[in-house]
Amino acid sequence: MSTSTSSNENAIATPVGITLERYIMRKQSEFPFATGELSQLLRDIALAGKIVNREINRAGLMDIAGSFGSQNIQGEQQQKLDVVANIRFIRALKNGGEACAILSEEDDEIIQTGNDKGRYVVAMDPMDGSSNIDVNVSIGTIFSIYRRVTPVGTPATKEDFLQGGRKQVAAGYILYGSSTMLVYTTGHGVACFTYENSLGEFFLSHSDIKIPQDGTIFSCNEGNWFDYPEWVQGYLTECKRKRFSGRYIGSLVADYHRNLLKGGIYLYPPTAKNTSGKLRLLYEGYPLAFVIEQAGGRAMAGTEAILDIVPIDCHQRTPLYIGSADMVEEMMSHATAAEPVGR
Ligand code: AHG
Ligand code: MN
Ligand code: MN
Fold first, then answer.
1. pLDDT for 234-262, tens place per residue?
2. What separation in Å is there between the alpha carbon of 192 and the centre of ligand 1?
3. Burial (CB count within 10 angstroms: exposed 0-12, middle 13-18, buried 19+), residue 17
4. Phi/psi at 115 (nearest 5 deg)?
5. Most buried by CB count within 10 Å: which residue of 13, 139, 253, 300?
6. What angle do CA 237, 243, 246 make, to 5 degrees?
7. Distance from the CA of 5 to the center of ligand 1, in angstroms?
8. Nearest residue by C-alpha to atom 17 in ligand 1
9. What is the pTM for the complete model shown?
10. Residues 235 and 322 in one domain
């Protein structure tokens, strides 16, 4: 076919690009000993994401917005969509067969999938940004995948989840926003896929994402200002002097995604209410830190990199300072020895 014919063709029928399915297959073939299990796991997560996306789009019409009337392990009100998303992801992972256990923000104990032969475990925040569910603002799902350390064929234990952030084999998130996007890494760069509703497929939209080295956006809940450590206030004051933009949605995934593409810093320091920070290390901190480092950014908990924190509890919390490398570095330069950085 001549070039001119194919460019004519493209003009009247724009190519739709590479599907997530094909991308995963391609990547798998780049690893000589890959067995396809991780690929299948990523497909299962994408499938659950499509289903949750459908539920979210109908939330205004169905009785699934609002509070469920119960609390999760964190003592927080569960929204109905928190519960719906949790069920959908657990079901998809159980049916898929590759994950032997799941750690969810919504469940106190780890969940055995019944697939003891599965080689992977998945930690997840099935619905991030719950406070935005009822008001039609972007929300997300965050996931983190490890190869189990307990013997295949036996039930998984907490040990499988408490390996530390550097042991993640894949991590990412789904953002249910003006478009629905799936962003993930397996440790070889970061790729983003946008969901095409009418075709029911995720298509590659951003390959090898790199976060801008520096940025001019800071994202935090300034309502907590008087609880912030002085060094954090000092850094934010400097941002304001430089007339940086304050942008805060209140859905971590959405704030993070904007900063990933545009350059910026997201921060959630310790507060009087949450003295160790509010965000959860295993299914918010670690996965987003893995993605940001793969994108050339940085993620700190204070003086320590998020990925270097040795975990002690499945639901533990952490302060989080994450985003463009230069901004995070500048912020850390405000952490003085006189006031040790809280964790
Ligand atoms: P979740 O909805 O999973 O509990 O997470 C909420 C988190 C995060 O998404 C967001 O950035 C942060 O809480 C907002 O907290 P504040 O309302 O305290 O700012
Ligand atoms: Mn969350
Ligand atoms: Mn959540």
1. 999 999 999 999 999 999 999 999 999 99
2. 23
3. middle
4. -105, 70
5. 139
6. 75
7. 52
8. 250
9. 0.93
10. yes
